[in-house]
Amino acid sequence: MNVKLVIEYEGTRYHGWQAQAGAPTVEAALRDAIQSLTGESPVLTAAGRTDAGVHALGQVVNFRLEREFPIEQMPGALNARLAPDIAVRRAEVVDESFNARYSAKARLYAYRIRQALPRGAYQRQYAWGLHDTLDVAAMQAAGDRLAGQHDFRAFGRSPRPGGHTVRHVRDVRVSGAGDWVTIAVAADAFLYGMVRRIAGALVEVGRRRQPVEWIDSLLGGSTTGLRLAPPQGLVQVAVEY
Questions:
Q1: Which of 43, 195, 197, 205 has the highest count of CB atoms within 10 angstroms of its CB?
Q2: Averaged pLDDT for residues 2-20
Q3: Would the pTM of this model clear 0.85, i.e. be above it?
């Protein structure tokens, strides 16, 4: 049976999604819980491999079990075996052709910023705290230039060695409410580090350190002035199929 899970996690204490020796990861924790529950240790396929410290509200994972399992019992049974910072929200049996990564049509991420902040304590593990006050309108104008199909090689690397770096960004929306600024990005797929570099670029424009037109040079392949935003502000929100 091909099982699809929707999970959320608070990524602060994990070294990202992908299992790696000697470091706690979300994939390893979930696989251990599945093995404890079913006696099987399947290969897990995730819609995206989040970095260390990055969070998820709607990560999608699929795996195959050799034996049948009552799917309606799986979320509760797995959650009983997982630490409180990982939660299985939904489980269902899907068609054998379903693949969490390759079947995805779009992915949505959000990046949260707390601006005008001399020193922050509240939600510091969920947002990038900045001393500056950001120009949200300029950030939106810069984000508009990123929409569409472009070569985003300056913004990250392909998940596959030698893979292409062209991606189609459906939408970039920047919104502000008091101290909080949120950058929401939807695309068919992302490069490693792409959303964090988009956030870093838009913040440079919002700080008025770079003009809106600077985005065009980044789309041309330049990395001058481009920085990687810290991981804690990023959350994988949802995957569309």
A1: 195
A2: 97
A3: yes
Q: Determine the 3-state secondary structure of 31 from DSSP.
A: helix
**Neighbouring-strand partners of residue 108:** 186, 238
Residues 219 and 125 in one domain: yes
Q: What's the pLDDT band for 122 if we cut at 50, 70, 90?
A: confident
Number of separate domains in the chain: 2
Cβ–Cβ < 8 Å for 186, 147: no
pLDDT for residue 10 is more than 90: yes
Does residue 187 surpass a pLDDT of 90? yes
User: Given 3-state DSSP classes, what are the helix, strand and coil percentages for the chain, each rounded to the nearest 5?
Assistant: 25, 30, 45
Show the domain range for 49: 2-94
The two tokens of residue 144 are 């508009």
Examine residue 10 and state whether it is found in any structural domain, yes or no.
Answer: yes
Residues with catalytic function? 51
pLDDT digit string, tens, across residues 207-223: 999 999 999 999 999 99
pLDDT, one tens digit per residue, over 141-151 is: 999 999 999 99
